[in-house]
Amino acid sequence: MRLSIVLVILRKELLETLRDRRTFVSLVLLPMMLYPLFALLMSRMAGAEMDALEARPSKIAVWGELSPDVSAALAAGENKLDIMPWHGVPAPLRRDLEAGAIAPPAPAPPRPPGPPRKGSNAEAAGAEAKADTKPRDADRPDAAVALAARALVGAREVHAVLVPWRGFSEDVRAGKAARVTLYYDSVWGDSDFAADRLDYALARARDGLLVAREGEKALPKGFTSGLEVVSRNVAPDERRVGKVLGTIMPMMLILMSLLGGFLRAADMTAGEKERGTMQTLLCAPLLPIEIITGKFLAVSVVSLFTALVNVASLGLTLRRILPGEMDVPFSAHVLTFALLVPVTLLFSALFLAVAAFARDFKDAQNLLTPVYLPVMLLSMVTSLPGMELSVATSFVPVLNVALLIKAIYLGDVAPDLVLFTIGSSTLFAALTLVFAARVFEREDVLLGGRGSFRAVFSFERQKGGIPSLGFSLGAFAVVLVVMFYASFLVEKTTNKTAQLAATQLGLFFLPALAAIAASGASMRETLGLRMPRPRALVGAVLAGLSGGAAVAAIATRLVPVPPEFAEKLGDALLLDGQPLWVLLIVIAVLPALCEETLFRGLLFSGLTRAGFGVALVASSLLFGLAHGSIYRLLPTFSLGLLLGYARHETRSLLPGILVHGINNALAITILAVRPPWLEKLLQNDQVPVGLGVGAALVLALGVVLMREPRKADARG
Amino acid sequence: MPPEATAPDAALAAEGLVKHYGPTIAVAGLDLQVRPGEVVGLLGPNGAGKTTALRMLAGILRPTQGRVRIGGIDMAERPLEAKALIGFLSGDTQLYQRLSPRETLQYFGRLHGLPEAALTTRIDELVRDLEMASFADRPSATLSAGQKQRANIARAFLHAPSVLILDEPTNALDVLSGRFIVESIRKERAKGRAILFSTHIMSEAEYLCDRIALIHEGRIVDEGEVPDLCARAGDAKNLTDAFLYHVERGAPRVDGASSGGAA
């Protein structure tokens, strides 16, 4: 592939894009207008809703006797409270309340320090905190009242129920803290608003009482309040907008970023076919891979630029239109853009590949829409409440990035999930690129009409040899996806031992073997089923014994493991106190066999088609990522390098299985037995330098022993 | 195919070309040579396999069987070198709508690896020779059909290819524009280019071509100079009658020279 040619194609495609008004509109104009307009519209709507709420008086049922002064204060016209004494109270409950047979709920604990929330100044006249009407409140003394209030509010007869407990008036008169409880429904906007109004009115009433008491006791003015706090909520409308924007932003960002690529991909493939320029391009002295790369880069640049404009427009909107409400740091925008990169690359390749099947631009849009729809659905799922990024969702394309963007804007991001998301998105992008290259190798697709999708997806069974790069990556991605769905099944069994064993055998080992068999590649070559020299086996044993300690000595100093994490991992690995021999089978033997088959067998062999270096780094990275934590990434990645080296040098899977198995066995034995002398040695949970150096020397010896002279070297 | 079927001096040579699209056989064994300075016309009704044959010769389509040599270079083995020697033009090719003819020429010049200075000179030369000065810098979307086809011709001639493959280049052009294209092709022949040219306009073929190959149902039914073709077609009065004679008979003429190949 000649870079100069690729650049010529890229440059021409970009020049055409710049001159296309349609693309300019969807690329720059639309995003620049979308976010500000959306924010304005939302705040306008929220404002209108607010106005309507303001206009309606709140109906408050009062179940009890308020003192005359408090009663008068609440009834004041500006409060817009419609006080309805004893409205809707069941007769027996009224009797109990009047008799004082029901105890008021215990006062709520003081609010933790933090940003002030609506209603935090609610302790009017020494009132109790508002009581929620949740089922768990059934044990509370006022359960009967709460139930009756919930029924009344639920029937929309009143907006809230206020209960001044028996003795309220006497307490007020005696200068004690009088108790009231407010029952309302925070989900119903009118009820929530009524509670706000009552809070405010009660606070005013309290202030009146305090001033009166100061007068009675001849205290200096302000003695009782000590502090005069005037708080004013400046942006009640925008807060709602921020929340709404936060939940739908990821969807808008992703969909808008892909839109630019969508149009360009259709134009560059089907459009060129329609105009007949595709065949002139094909008869120029160019390789298909140069054409696809140039076009892929062009679509990517356009998409990335759209993504950038979108992120910028969103950022500016948040700053200018919703000031102070969403305090999103600049770095969050940078990270968001970075996350859009793999998604954009993935869809640039996918759009190109799919659009290449179309006869003309219109046809391309028809074909691309089904590709675009799942993206829409996946990113819409993001806005569902409770949908959060987890280890499982971080492997679902699009959804992972959308969820991560949501988490970034709502300010809660787990670093290892960022890593998984970027890792898996990059893997998917690479796969689609392989697919797109395959499509562009097909003349009938590029020249004529539809061609057949099936021909592109079909693969010819190989006769022996190692699997192809695309096949290995594809099979690995399938294993990932199957793992995602299977994790729901496996989760159901509470037996952790069975869970781990099932995962290893059912999700790593068998799928890997099935994939190799399906590809028609040689089992022997792919898995390296050969007996290495005895000295290589000795080397593997040495490396297995020392590798873990050597790696840990460095890794724990570079990325310190939080003790809670180490403890949690340790507990998880001990499998609820299984005997050591079970641990050795499930934690050492099975992973050594199954993970090596998948990672150093199927995956590594296919990857070697792109070169040993690529295979080593990529397989180790995926191996590290598969271990599911940022704290384990460096150790497992390093172990992956060692295992990949062993596989390559000895051309056999066996030394790797030995290294992996011994390493795990050693670790789990130490964890289970916890010999006191070793605990003493590992001060601060770190491998001491001396032990680390010793282990490194043993490891080096093991590595040298595993080296096998290549045929080329053996000449001399 | 017997190797002696290829003349040693042929700039373009097809040997036993076959193309299947699934069950459909578009080209069923085609042998053809074009020598430098020669214009060969490929004549046939719609669906005879002309376009498929020319696309295989230009290296856009891979033949199911047979092979193509351009200047002695095997298309399947060294496609980039072979394609570098070909200028291809088809009647339904349009230009990049948002680029001017000059930009289009620059683009293809760079794809052919022409150095910038030489490219600029060459483009100026083509703009002058093909009388494109008035529209060379306008967006192609605004050009007339004749102007567009001149720009297309310029693109095919740009890298001074030794072989020109022209698929109905005068298709949908008015008489004036068509005549201009035909004259340009004659000038290229004078420069020693080997030209393979397909058309269904008989007068054009008679005027331009040194030899004519009649193609029907994916194979060449007769090949030679116009008088010979007429003589072999039951003493046809002109090329049109000779053409009709073969099409209506529908079967390949048994001659040995042209119809060998796949069954």
UniProtKB/TrEMBL annotation, chain A:
Residue ranges occupied by any ABC-2 type transporter transmembrane domain in the UniProt entry: 24-437
This protein's GO CC annotations: membrane
Regions that span the bilayer: 24-42, 244-263, 296-318, 330-358, 364-384, 417-440, 469-490, 502-524, 536-558, 578-594, 601-623, 629-646, 653-674, 686-706
Location in the cell: Membrane
UniProt main location, coarse: membrane
Gene Ontology biological process terms, A to Z: CAAX-box protein maturation; proteolysis
Annotated spans, Disordered: 101-141
Residue ranges constituting the CAAX prenyl protease 2/Lysostaphin resistance protein A-like domain according to the UniProt record: 579-666
Name this protein carries in UniProt: CPBP family intramembrane metalloprotease
Automatic annotation (TrEMBL), chain B:
Gene3D superfamilies: P-loop containing nucleotide triphosphate hydrolases
Keyword entries, A-Z: ATP-binding, Nodulation, Nucleotide-binding, Transport
GO molecular function: ATP binding; ATP hydrolysis activity
Alphabetized InterPro entries for the sequence: AAA+_ATPase, ABC_transporter-like_ATP-bd, ABC_transporter-like_CS, ABC_transporter_ATP-binding, P-loop_NTPase
Residue intervals of the ABC transporter domain: 12-242
Domain of life: Bacteria
Listed SMART domains: AAA
UniProt record similarity statement: Belongs to the ABC transporter superfamily.
Listed name of the protein: ABC transporter ATP-binding protein
